[in-house]
Known about the structure:
Radius of gyration: 16 Å
Helix content: 55-70%
Strand content: under 5%
Shape: elongated
Distance between the termini: 42 Å
Largest sheet: none
Structural class: mainly alpha
Amino acid sequence: MSDIADRADIEIEREKQRELNRIAQSLEESGIIDCIDCGDEIPEARRKVMPSAKRCMDCEDLRR
């Protein structure tokens, strides 16, 4: 039984990653690579980890 659940979990994680990749591609194609607060470019490493990021880390930290 756990084998089926494990495979389902893996498939869910794969689908999440595919969705994140689609979001990242969409954002890149739309040109949204600049922070909506300060206007600085959001570093590529951040965009890869958090494709839906709209703020650089400095601005995100200020919001907390």
